[in-house]
Amino acid sequence: MNLTRREILHFVGGSAVGLILSPFPWKALNDTANWSQNWPGVPEPTRGPVSYKLTTCSLCPAACGMKVRCVGNRPVSISGLNSHPLNQGALCPTGIVSHHLQYHPARNFHPLRIVKRNGVAQKTKMTMDETLHEIGKAIKAAAANSKIVALIDERSGRTISQLYRQFAASIPFGMYIKSEESMVGYDIDNAKTILSFGAPLLDGWGSPSRALRYFNRKAVSQQQIIQIESCLSRTAGKADKWIPIKPSTEIAFALGLVNIITHSTNAKTNNKIIAEIIHIATQFTPEKVSTICGIKEDLIKDVAYRFVSTTPSIAVTDHRSVSKDVQTVIQALNIINGNIGSIGGVTQKRAFSNEIKENASGSSEVLDIQLIPDNSIHVMIVDESLSGSRISDALLQKKIVQDKGIVVSLSPFVHDRSFDTQYYISTPVFLETVSDVEGAIDNPVSILGISTQIMPTPQGLTEPAQFIQNLARLTGVTNVDSGTSEELIKKRAEIIFRQKRGTIYSSVSGQATEVKAIVSFDDLWKELVAGGCWMDKREILKNHSMSDFIKPLSKIDINSWNSLKDNVLYLIPMMGSGQYSSERISPIMSKVDQESGLRPYGRQVFLHPSTGKKYECFEGEEVIARTQKGSMKVQVRLDSSIMPQVAMVAMNSSGQENCADLFDKNFDLSIRPTPMNIEKV
Amino acid sequence: MSFVGWVLFPYVLYERIEQPLQFSHKVHIESAGMTCDACHGLSEEGRFLGIPPLTKCAECHTDIIGSSPHEKLFVEEYVKKNREVPWLIYSKQPQNAYFSHTSHIKLAKLSCEECHGPHGSTDSLRTYERNKISGYGRDIWGRSIVRLKSSPWDGMKMDDCADCHRKRGVPNTCLKCHK
């Protein structure tokens, strides 16, 4: 049979048409698309029974109650516990996605030694024994040569803090450094008038869920937030009233209020510091404060009137963004108004753990790292095992002995630091370990919450407690408590049970029970590890010590404000939680933060558009910010919430440069507005 | 080529695999007096339990209680050796589809048969037909190569779900099933 060309073409054409008219191509296309769903590498979600576990968030001190949804023992989502007294169902964006932390790309699962050669960091995996041996040797050498060994603890109210204190107290020239005074509490929830001097009350200050709760409760609570701040921050924008004072004139405004209140109430005091503040305040008449702060006289009087008449009232500030003097004057306002120890006022929390003896060099405890001389720490152990407020990298860098000091980081992640860390001890992340939570600054009483272990701890990780205990053994220190983290926390909880203090909230029943009504310690422990929380008994303090709240003032000269000239551009810091966090958070959150541009980074300078126009800067341009102290390349961001004639720079550390170096400093190393100039690159 | 597309292709496309064991739903329902939810029920928190685990079967079948060779095999090879039976699931959906049995049973009051057909009355398990390209069972696409539905349970693709929702006036969005 001979096939002609025409017949072959007919056959091919007919076959093509026949195939198209059959289901073959369409079904094959559909099935191929479905096949791609099962390619290797496509993540396969865990299958298994769904369960819910109750726990407490330990990423910051706020101790929010959480419900963790697990599929086959793997956490897949987190929500807040509605009945929990501390967060009432609200969670911050970081907490909601905290179960992502275990998959963070920066996680580290081995002890690491990092050596810089020719500017390149070489990472070497080590065994725990080798690491301990090398760090122990460095500590022994420092002790033998009377050099400082510092333990930096950003969250000083925890059980592990006790171990750090014990270790620091047991070695010569050991220093335990904590970031803030945690025993003062602010009863914000019960205050009707809240006078906030720049504190980001609705943007992460204290309990991050505050903003949600504030707006939910507003109709009932009738709270009023008056935000005194020199830029339209997120809190200023959401507050009931925003008082836009000139930059760094908070102390003048506070002294003006003291002047009006003491003048109208004829206040008398036996306390020397308060008497001194009242005396200084006599210079700060409403007329004078109006000139200094750039606001109307009547507004100052209105605020003073509201503060005194609509009680309970409270004055708060963010200790990270103002000097010690400003903090003292603001606390003096609380003292003069009778807010100390009262409902809706400032409280002194009671400790419930043992005191630690001082070491050979005197007091082992240092409240503020700024008080340690620069270039003096030989071995620095930094606890970064949990998120939370961190001492700036730049500040730590200044305190280490250059080129000779060693830095040991206890962290689940390898950090992108502005200085070298020689050793990384890989620690578990939240939900992989048991840890306790101490309560935030806006909790008026002491708190104990426990974050439970929901996922198994991966191999190669070391608990901070275990690390310190092993280091103590190696360096001959015997004064450090033994036991696992859970055992140590349990011992601490036993103190509460023995003292029969406060109430325990049960996440399971949603009820609060007095500790004295609980029969056995096991019952109390069961509640604590199931998302419960202990709250100390609220006591109205009568004989409180003023020194807990106020410190002696430096010399305040009313004429010093004359030095802030109208035609000069001043550099001021943007601090607190408004800036982009350098903490390790879920990549989803950091992506939102980075791409939205809502949170400023380090080395970004914010200018009012009119200031930008004056200095011929445009959005995103790189310029040189120059002060008498130094210069730095910064990126310009134009923002109409910033006052004209002011440049605000984010203080979070990134890269090798340090924004803090550009500023003039007060005696307590707090930052002053500093004249600056903008130069083209 | 039309013959290839209509007849040969569907035949070649599906790989026929026998279940590891035979199982009679009929015996369990008619003789043992059980109902669907005795084995395929909801857990305490409302989650559909799917194919029952070995422990569930072992509640009755710790020893051989009938005369079926398949039961003998089941007890000896699986129950006594504590091995789960690797059942082939006809209605297994892609991982990217989330389906709540609870809301369909409790809220929509659907019966099991509306989606799964009357296999509760069958005496043996059908041969599992696996699509060689996509890897899913034939029940997902349906018996007909051109998806001509012969019964409501013929086909379990997204279009089938959407059709049913449309008929019942139940609103649907992407994120309801694809979380």
What are the main properties of this structure?
heterodimer; A: 681 residues; alpha/beta; 8-stranded mixed beta sheet; 18 helices; B: 179 residues; mainly alpha; 10 helices
What is the topology?
The complex is a heterodimer of chains A (681) and B (179).
Chain A: H1 5-20, H2 24-35, E1 50-56, E2 65-71, E3 74-80, H3 93-96, E4 112-117, E5 120-125, H4 128-144, E6 148-153, H5 159-170, E7 174-178, E8 184-186, E9 193-197, H6 210-221, E10 224-228, H7 234-238, E11 241-243, H8 250-265, H9 272-281, H10 286-293, H11 297-309, E12 313-317, H12 324-336, E13 346-348, E14 365-366, E15 377-383, H13 393-399, E16 406-411, E17 423-426, E18 435-437, E19 447-451, H14 464-474, H15 485-499, E20 503-505, E21 512-514, H16 521-528, E22 533-535, E23 569-574, H17 587-596, E24 604-607, H18 609-614, E25 622-627, E26 630-638, E27 646-650, E28 664-665, E29 671-672, E30 674-680
Parallel strand pairs in A: 6-7, 6-15, 7-14, 9-10, 9-12, 10-11, 15-16, 16-17, 23-27, 24-26
Antiparallel strand pairs in A: 1-2, 2-3, 4-5, 4-17, 8-13, 18-19, 19-22, 20-21, 20-22, 23-30, 24-27, 25-26, 25-30, 28-29
Helix pairs in contact in A: 4-14, 5-14, 8-9, 8-10, 8-11, 8-12, 10-11
Chain B: H1 2-13, E1 14-17, H2 25-31, H3 36-39, H4 54-58, H5 69-79, H6 101-107, H7 113-116, E2 128-131, H8 138-141, H9 158-168, H10 174-177
Antiparallel strand pairs in B: 1-2
Report on the structure:
The complex is a heterodimer of chains A (681) and B (179). Chain A has 681 residues and is an alpha/beta fold. Helix content of chain A is 29%, strand content 21%. The radius of gyration of chain A is 29 Å and the shape is globular. Chain B has 179 residues and is mainly α. Chain B contains ten helices and two strands, in the order H-E-H-H-H-H-H-H-E-H-H-H. Chain B has a two-stranded antiparallel ribbon. The chains are: A alpha/beta (681), B mainly alpha (179). Chains A and B meet through helix 1, helix 2 and strand 1 of A and helix 1 of B.
